[in-house]
Specification:
Layout: H1 7-12, H2 16-22, H3 25-31, H4 36-48, H5 54-70
């Protein structure tokens, strides 16, 4: 049986700077793979603690990290 990891807390805590860098609006626009507006909106909602968008954001973060490594 698998287990959950507290990605939501990590993104608000120790991984916040890393995530903020990858989800930077200008970076998202420059790369052109995603519409930055809804991602930034969900990121702000997640940081506020009102909505847990961790798993959706994690997918975007993994793609962004992969793109960065490819360059």
């Amino acid at each position: 049986m698998g287990f959950g990891v507290p990605i939501d807390l990590w993104l608000r805590g120790p991984l916040r700077d890393w995530a903020e860098d990858l989800l930077d609006e200008s970076r998202l626009r420059q790369e052109g793979w995603f519409n930055s507006e809804p991602i930034r909106e969900k990121w702000q909602q997640h940081l506020s603690g009102n909505i847990n968008w961790a798993y959706l954001l994690w997918d975007v973060l993994m793609f962004q990290a992969w793109i960065r490594e490819q360059r």
